[in-house]
TrEMBL record:
<feature type="region of interest" description="Disordered">
    <location>
        <begin position="574"/>
        <end position="630"/>
    </location>
</feature>
<keyword id="KW-0677">Repeat</keyword>
<dbReference type="Pfam" id="PF13181">
    <property type="entry name" value="TPR_8"/>
</dbReference>
<dbReference type="Pfam" id="PF12569">
    <property type="entry name" value="NatA_aux_su"/>
</dbReference>
<keyword id="KW-0675">Receptor</keyword>
<dbReference type="InterPro" id="IPR021183">
    <property type="entry name" value="NatA_aux_su"/>
</dbReference>
<feature type="compositionally biased region" description="Basic and acidic residues">
    <location>
        <begin position="594"/>
        <end position="618"/>
    </location>
</feature>
<keyword id="KW-0802">TPR repeat</keyword>
<dbReference type="InterPro" id="IPR011990">
    <property type="entry name" value="TPR-like_helical_dom_sf"/>
</dbReference>
<dbReference type="InterPro" id="IPR019734">
    <property type="entry name" value="TPR_rpt"/>
</dbReference>
<dbReference type="GO" id="GO:0031415">
    <property type="term" value="C:NatA complex"/>
</dbReference>
<protein>
    <submittedName>
        <fullName>NMDA receptor-regulated protein 1-domain-containing protein</fullName>
    </submittedName>
</protein>
Length: 726
């Protein structure tokens, strides 16, 4: 032990108490105790590190880091100092640096159970599963009687793709594990055991295990689902069919059960459509309230059978006034015969309702609203087929019939939007909003239309009607992780060439996905403790692909377009887009930009102090936006490198999207990375050879290579080989 680390017995006892105060989150008390030691021993590294940890948890981050670093200077071989430094990095979501600190800590105390446990959590977060297995094994060797450590090792093996080894670990200690927690927790552990057998593909063992433990399983439906699934895999068709029929009786709205039954009967083959229709019709007769079954019957019905069934479905829905009828019916439009049938029926309904008041000339009289919802359906039908004039005439007829129905105005606005009349669409959508000022959905739709028309301020004011009053509407929507708003506002600014503000919105989306990734950290301990292991593994696997969500793709595309626009600006243009300007206009714009820059500098000099943060009713300070215009993004010196930060996740998680590779191409061709640019084009050909962007980008590439200086012979050879594949 280094001389400076040794403490007298009295101070040593105080230091042990400091460690306890941290465990009990008594940070202020711990700080006082640390100061009492540092008065006598100001160079005691471990106490300095603990003081830094307390300060960091008391929202004094910079001061906390200073003390921890000072502690390391005085005692570089202390595992406590390195552990504390790792905790600070972990709190800042800097997982790579935290991992380095834990590695150093374990050099000086390889058997410390607290460091090993924290290191295991970090390795799970960083998906370092092979290293995680080693750490979990060490933990188990330290405490072989601790059941959670056995379970942790089993999960580590499963995450590393070794469910057989996970099962060996779990079964070797299952007797001691069975007394953990409540019946529900034990039930979850048993079902986790069963899921490992399923993952191994050993369905016979899985069903035998279910037979053995089913009485102890609390999640009865999950057990029944698994049993039926395993029986189907083992070709025990009669037993599996019986199991799925029982599940259908419980929940006839679950399509998965119906499809499983059809697969067992061999009715999922396209050649067995008639038999499948017969089976579905018989099942629907048993469960006539199931919309899922009704939908499947219509999918498999053909000819007169479809005509009769869709006639009944449409009349019932129009009679009841179901606004979502068109949305649930347009899926059949892919079949030309079904499309023609639906069109003929609804147009016939309109004619008959206007003449006789019934769906058919000799039918019963329907309520007046039947005509209203028929007109509503027909308007959407015409809009779907881009027959905008007919759609507008029909929806106007519906509005004349019932001028107070909100959905009619929303649909009219949608038709106008599709027609390209955005300004008029906003006006009509606002009319719909004013008909029901308490409807948040309509309010949001109206704001979205305003953003599409670049009316940013009006959109923010509209949304502010439903946000917290103590904070700006935009801040509240960011706090609520409202992705659609930030994406639409970002694109509104992008269209107006306000690239800084646009990038600020797109980076908010990036931060939302970073937060989703960071939020999983707490579950590494919680799920082990509560035994929700199946859900935990499912969560981790979902998190691995969370960025392939369409929202992230859209935001990434907008961010890359913004960065490309910044990169394409002439360096002497002071941020002015000079495309299409004459020399005189360019000179005038540059002069104006220089004057604006000088004025901004003077304004900034006057505002030396940061504006004071406003306080809420409870006394907490509201955050102040230090960069409302996104200047730090606008004035970046490396726009192409910044754009790649959005593209790289897409290349991993959305490799089948043409947009991903087109965006990559745009960056690579500007960086003169010819091989990478060509590879992007080849990826597009693998997805869709007929994509219109392919021909254009190929020509651009050839011209760019010709204009460039002679390439290195090795690169030229690769380029020629790749070009030959296009």
């Amino acid at each position: 032990m280094p001389p400076k680390r040794e403490l007298p017995s009295k101070e040593s006892a105080v230091f042990k108490n400091i460690l306890k105060t941290y465990e009990h989150r008594q940070y202020k008390k711990g700080l006082k105790l640390a100061d009492s030691i540092l008065k006598k021993f100001p160079e005691h590294g471990e106490t300095l590190a603990m003081k830094g940890l307390f300060l960091n948890n008391l929202q004094k981050k910079e001061e906390g880091y200073e003390y921890v670093k000072k502690g390391l200077q005085y005692d570089l071989t202390s595992h406590i100092c390195w552990h504390v430094y790792g905790l600070l990095h972990r709190a800042d979501k800097n997982y790579a640096e935290a991992a380095k600190c834990y590695t150093h800590a374990l050099k000086y105390n390889k058997n410390d159970i607290h460091i090993l446990r924290d290191f295991a959590l970090l390795q799970t977060q960083m998906r370092q599963y092979d290293s995680l297995i080693e750490t979990r094994t060490q933990l188990l060797q330290q405490r072989p009687t601790n059941p959670p450590f056995w379970i942790g090792l089993a999960v580590a093996y499963q995450l590393a793709g070794k469910p057989d080894k996970a099962l060996n670990v779990l079964t070797s200690h299952e007797e001691s594990v069975k007394d953990i927690g409540s019946k529900i927790e034990h039930s979850e552990l048993l079902m986790y055991h069963n899921s490992l057998l399923e993952e191994m593909g050993d369905y016979k063992a899985a069903i035998e295990h279910l037979d053995k433990v089913e009485n102890q399983v609390m999640d009865k439906r999950a057990a029944r689902e698994k049993r039926a699934f395993f029986q189907s895999k083992l070709d025990q068709k009669d037993e599996a069919e019986k199991g799925y029929w029982n599940l259908v009786a419980e929940n006839p709205h679950d399509v998965a059960y119906i499809k499983a039954l059809m697969a067992l009967k061999g009715l999922d083959d396209e050649s067995k459509r008639a038999d499948a229709y017969r089976f579905l019709t018989e099942t629907y007769d048993k469960y006539p309230k199931s919309k899922a079954l009704e939908d499947m019957v219509l999918q498999y019905a053909e000819g007169d059978k479809f005509n009769l069934k869709i006639d009944t479905v449409l009349q019932n829905a129009l009679r009841k006034g179901i606004p979502s009828l068109f949305a649930s019916t347009k899926k059949y439009y892919g079949n030309k015969e079904k499309l023609a049938t639906i069109e003929k029926l609804v147009l016939g309904y309109r004619e008959s309702l206007e003449k006789s008041g019934g769906f058919t000339p000799d039918g019963q009289t329907e309520p007046p609203t039947a005509l209203l919802w028929t007109l509503y359906f027909i308007a959407q039908h015409y809009d779907f087929h881009t027959q905008y004039e007919k759609a507008l005439d029909t929806i106007n007829a519906a509005i004349d019939h019932s001028p107070t129905v909100v959905e009619l105005y929303m649909t009219k606005a949608r038709i106008l939007k599709h027609q390209g009349e955005l300004k008029q669409a906003v006006k009509i959508m606002n009319t719909a909003r004013e008909l029901d000022l308490q409807d948040r959905f309509v309010n949001s739709k109206c704001a979205k239309y305003m953003l599409r028309n670049n009316q940013v301020e009006e959109a923010e004011k509209t949304l502010a009607l439903f946000t917290r009053k103590e904070v700006p509407a935009t801040q509240d929507l960011v706090d609520m992780q409202c992705q659609w708003f930030n994406i639409e506002e970002g694109y509104a600014y992008l269209r107006q060439k306000e690239y800084g503000k646009a990038l600020k919105r797109f980076h908010i989306i990036e931060k939302i996905y970073d937060d989703i990734y960071d939020d999983q950290f707490d579950f590494h301990t919680y799920c082990m403790r509560k035994m929700t292991l199946r859900a935990y593994v499912s969560l981790l696997r979902y998190e691995d692909h969370v960025r392939d969500h369409p929202y992230y793709l859209k935001a990434a595309k907008g961010a890359v377009e913004s960065y490309l626009a910044i990169a394409d600006k002439p360096s002497d243009s002071n941020g002015i887009d000079e495309s299409g300007m004459t020399e005189a206009e360019k000179k005038k714009a540059r002069s104006k930009a220089r004057k604006a820059e000088l004025k901004a500098q003077k304004t900034n000099e006057k505002k030396e102090e940061v504006p004071a943060a406003k306080k809420q009713a409870d006394g907490t300070k509201l955050p102040v936006d230090q960069d409302p215009n996104g200047d730090k993004y606008l004035h970046t010196k490396t726009p192409l490198e910044d754009a790649m930060q959005f593209i790289k996740p897409l290349q991993q998680l959305a490799p089948n999207s043409i947009d991903t590779h087109n965006l990559g191409f745009e960056v690579y061709i500007r960086q003169s990375q010819w091989v990478l640019a060509l590879r992007s084009l080849l990826k597009v050909t693998e997805i869709n050879k007929e994509d219109p962007s392919l021909k254009t980008n190929t020509e651009r590439f050839k011209k760019a290579v010709e204009a460039a200086s002679p390439l290195d012979p090795s690169i030229q050879k690769i380029v020629d080989l790749l070009l030959a594949k296009l």
